[in-house]
Design a protein that fits this description.
12 helices, three-stranded antiparallel sheet, 45% helix, disordered C terminus, Alpha-Beta Plaits, alpha+beta
């Protein structure tokens, strides 16, 4: 197994205090004059997924540049409450809230589209202390048509967190004041502990609004200590981690379809079943879910 790259504070990043066209080209690997063409709509694939969401995915040279910037951002230290980072998973996020106590959760509506070019520019200008023209170029590269973070880029999660870091840090301070465990997985916000009340959930949602973002009312929920709790796609029951019924149903449906499938369809279903079973094993192998 290869050694994980060492992480460092933001002021040790090659992006920090970046100024000058020459240094920009050395760090980003793109010529200054090529940026406008690189960011054109022809370097994005755009489609609507099965949930009706528009996906904007960079390709060609823009995808490579996103990967380059993403690599640099991934080496920056982030707080322990962040579970959408390399080496952690949505299951690890849910496990932090095991126990016989209340849980509250919410998420940010349209997280990536809510991170505008102005917010990304502010991130590089204020937090990274880049020169104004460099911050502008970086914001253009990171954003879809100079509007907002693209919904289909691996870079978007890193930039979105850093751009909204002040919000998440405010929630972390609020959680500590109420002696609650707080985690974030992309845009999913979860708090647990004896004081994780509906009133605290309302305060969290107020903070989100204060920072210019919106939370989803339908996904803002509170769970009593004794009830099953749905957290980032898994079910918590006391000290146990369980699969949602919908995941069991999908595995069963795939198994049934395989009984009559042939040729390429059978091959596709076998791969699908393997992936779903591996995902189920990841959930059910929780160390705190194994009986003595």
């Amino acid at each position: 197994m290869s050694e994980q790259p060492k992480r460092y504070p933001i002021d040790q990043s090659p992006l920090y205090s970046l100024c000058g066209k020459g240094k920009f080209e050395t760090v980003i690997g793109v010529s200054w004059e090529a940026v406008p063409e690189l960011c054109s709509s022809s370097n994005y694939r755009v489609w609507t997924n099965e949930k009706g969401r528009e996906i904007q995915a960079p390709f060609k040279g823009l995808a490579a540049t996103h990967r380059r910037i993403g690599l640099l951002l991934s080496r920056i230290d982030v707080p322990g409450y962040v579970y959408s980072q390399k080496g952690r998973s949505y299951v690890d996020n849910a496990r932090q809230h095991l126990g016989h106590h209340p849980v509250i959760k919410t998420d940010i509506q349209g997280f990536y589209p809510s991170i505008s070019r102005a917010k990304v520019y502010g991130l590089f200008r204020r937090d990274f202390r880049c020169a104004a023209d460099v911050a502008g170029r970086l914001a253009d590269i990171c954003c879809y048509q100079r509007l907002h973070l693209p919904t289909g880029s691996s870079l978007s999660g890193l930039v979105a967190f850093l751009a909204a870091r002040h919000l998440f840090d405010d929630i972390a301070r609020l959680a500590r004041g109420f002696d609650c465990t707080f985690t974030v997985y992309v845009d999913d916000i979860t708090l647990s502990g004896p004081n994780a009340t509906k009133q605290l959930l309302a305060e969290v949602r107020t903070l989100i609004k204060k920072h210019g973002l919106r939370s989803k009312r339908g996904k803002s929920k509170s769970f009593s200590p004794s009830s099953p709790k749905s957290v980032t796609g898994v079910i918590l029951v006391g000290e146990d981690v369980r699969l949602p019924n919908s995941r069991h149903q999908k595995i069963w449906e795939t198994q049934q379809a395989l009984l009559t499938a042939t040729g390429e369809e059978r091959f596709r279903l076998e791969r699908q079943l393997k992936g779903r079973e591996q995902e189920a094993n990841q959930v059910l192998r929780s160390p705190r879910n194994i009986s003595d």
